[in-house]
Amino acid sequence: MKPRSKRTQSRAAAARKKRTRPPATIGGDPANRFVNDLLVREEAAKPLPDGTLPLSATHAVTKENEDGTVEVKRARFKLF
Description:
three-stranded mixed sheet, elongated, alpha+beta, 16% strand
């Protein structure tokens, strides 16, 4: 009989444990990441001339800074 291996984990589990993913917010503030994600998903928008928001928007852009960042304010929950 062959002696059994002393491995405590499967090879796949050991490989997953070795792989590390950098945190999503490296080099940035989580609040900035949240706002950028809102802009990418088009959930933040400037109010229309009549003061309303598009139906897909959940946040209103309240201020645009000189460095290109924006400040948002929650307007409503997502309409499905």
